[in-house]
Amino acid sequence: MNSTLSTQKCEACHVDAPKVTDEELQAFMSQLPDWVPEVRDGVMMLERVYKFKNYKLAWAFANKVSELAEEEFHHPAILLEWGKVTITWWTHAIGGLHKNDFICASKTDALL
């Protein structure tokens, strides 16, 4: 079902859009086992660390994620380090997780 997420498009999200429910969170997380829900400053986010053999490979992956973000018009935090890229998705407009974040997480995994 992970492929189902990766084939969907993000929808425009407004301040009154619903955050994912606890049940939806569990269902989505079962499809994205390498991602971790994190709460920072009271905001639930979805995070994954990708490891690479060197900086250049990490940089290339970060660029691919940036292109994905522009295509979906949904933008994550991207931390680029030597041999490592940390991607954090959340929906700024609602201060938490929306289905868009899980769609983009799945599409991020597909970039590997």
TrEMBL record:
<protein>
    <recommendedName>
        <fullName>Putative pterin-4-alpha-carbinolamine dehydratase</fullName>
        <ecNumber>4.2.1.96</ecNumber>
    </recommendedName>
</protein>
<dbReference type="Pfam" id="PF01329">
    <property type="entry name" value="Pterin_4a"/>
</dbReference>
<comment type="similarity">
    <text>Belongs to the pterin-4-alpha-carbinolamine dehydratase family.</text>
</comment>
<keyword id="KW-0456">Lyase</keyword>
<dbReference type="InterPro" id="IPR050376">
    <property type="entry name" value="Pterin-4-alpha-carb_dehyd"/>
</dbReference>
<dbReference type="InterPro" id="IPR036428">
    <property type="entry name" value="PCD_sf"/>
</dbReference>
<dbReference type="InterPro" id="IPR001533">
    <property type="entry name" value="Pterin_deHydtase"/>
</dbReference>
